[in-house]
Amino acid sequence: MTADLHDIGGAPVVIGAGVAGLMTALHLAPQPVVLLCRTPMGTEASSTLAQGGIAASLGADDSPELHLADTLAAGDGLCDEAMVRRVVEAIPRAIDGIISLGASFDRTLDGALLLGLEAAHSRRRIVHAAGHATGRELLRVLVPAVRRTRSITVLEGIDVLRLIVSAGGIVGVVAARHDGVVALPTRRVVLATGGVGGLFCDTTNPLTSFGQGLALAACAGAELADLEFVQFHPTALETAHRPMPLVSEAVRGEGAILVDEHGRRFLSGVPGGELASRDVVARAVFAQLEAGNRVFLDARQCLGPKFAKRFPAIEAACRQAGIDPAVEPIPVRPAAHYHMGGVAVNAEGRSSVAGLWACGEVACTGLHGANRLASNSLAEAIATAVWVAESVAGTGAGWQWSRLPTIAPLRPDPSSIRRLASNALGIVRNGNKLREAITTLLPIAVGGHAAADPALVAMLIAIAGLRREESRGSHCRSDFPGREAAARPSRLTLCTAFETAVAHRWLASAGSS
């Protein structure tokens, strides 16, 4: 369908066309909904790159209680147990729904779903497609399903730049397209914009995924949560290509080991070894790199000539980099991969701003806590999209403005701040670097140029990181290596963030004068 952009009849607007956005739109049918995406559907979403799979307790030796326990352990004390329980109990049934849409998952010879093992899971419970192309398979079935659903209006080539708020609630969306800026009147918006990996030099995410949804929510006055928790995948293929090809955790699940350039296995003394939680493995790899060593993932003994059949896309990426993983170890390094923090939402995906929901990686539901358990991200998107859609559908369209302002900031570009963000917000942080980053980012964030929104998101993460004076999960402070006994999830708004940033900038200028 096509639409008059100036009159969408108050239909809800979903921003983002990854798994979370597509499924939310599908679950809203037959209610009319407008789906906005900056590129053609399925071409530039983190979901496309998702290799790990979907975590679900489907094995005879497994249960939602065991999945719950593993998720809570990985979350390092900051998970919302009620939300974790709700997701792990819902996801087995949700997978049946995905299969009914036509998704094809890996199966054993007798036809049962083939369940893989990934880091910090106590059971084989990862459902994969083509070994490591689960996200691509989901989009393969979801994109056509959305296109043939008449109640969904898809608008591609749209950059959403601001949410319009009046009397404490959403009243519209301001966006840019090829022929200028447009405004869409709506009182219901769902953010499904993905993560923040595009802020970093080394990332497995699309470079445009810099946290635009967080900037939109923050400028609308929404509360944000746990922004300091950024997960770095320990085994991205060391190459000049960006985003970096991911060497899936499933390879380590098959027995691959991490070694230095001398062939020494440096995780042999760590509980869980290569399948310890991602924060532990990422810091171990980072330490080796900081010491001047190179790091390799060695799959020669466990897979060898079977590598290409088991992981064809990873093998192809390795071959493109001049590596044959059947006979050579694979050079790897950590890369920004997933954001546990996001827009603070309740069990229905509602934010603190009336008319604004969030779903998928941009949302902070409490499922992941301080460190996401492997393959819980797609599980979260699939499970929560249903609840978000039900909540949106149950909320009236309300009164609509006939005219909305169409003044908007420039299209965002994070390229100029990537090095700064990488240095200050990386695997190991410290207070001095975080303070320096905050004072540097503040004038950029309010400067009105293309780097403003990326600088704002990076500044918010830095402030959250500075406030958490401990090391927990994916957040590691070299100046606060211990854990607080009574640490809680963190909350932040744009107002409190600016107060903090201005104070630090004033202190920095006073100290230098």
What does this structure look like?
The protein is an alpha/beta fold and 513 residues long. Among the domains are: 235-334, Succinate dehydrogenase/fumarate reductase flavoprotein, catalytic domain (Flavocytochrome C3, Chain A, domain 1, Alpha-Beta Complex), CATH 3.90.700.10; 408-512, Up-down Bundle (Methane Monooxygenase Hydroxylase, Chain G, domain 1), CATH 1.20.58.100. The protein is 34% helix and 16% strand. It has 15 helices and 19 strands. The chain has helices at 19-28, 46-49, 64-74, 81-100, 134-147, 212-219, 249-253, 278-290, 307-310, 312-320, 376-393, 418-424, 431-445, 452-467, 494-512; strands spanning 13-15, 33-37, 54-55, 115-116, 126-127, 152-156, 159-166, 169-177, 180-185, 189-191, 224-225, 230-237, 257-260, 295-298, 330-339, 342-344, 356-358, 363-364, 491-492. The strands form 5 sheets. It has a 5-stranded parallel beta sheet with strand order 6-2-1-10-17, with helices on one face. The chain has a 4-stranded mixed beta sheet with strand order 18-16-11-19. The protein has a 4-stranded antiparallel beta sheet with strand order 12-15-14-13, covered by helices on one side. Strand 8 and strand 9 (180-185) form a beta hairpin. Helix 3 packs across helix 4. The longest helix is centred in the first third of the chain and has 20 residues, at 81-100. It is globular. It starts with 12 loop residues before the first strand and ends with a helix. 55% of the residues are buried. The mean pLDDT is 92. Catalyzes the oxidation of L-aspartate to iminoaspartate. Residues 13-378 form the FAD-dependent oxidoreductase 2 FAD-binding domain. Its cofactor is FAD. Residues 457-485 form the Fumarate reductase/succinate dehydrogenase flavoprotein-like C-terminal domain. Keywords: FAD, Flavoprotein, Oxidoreductase, Pyridine nucleotide biosynthesis.
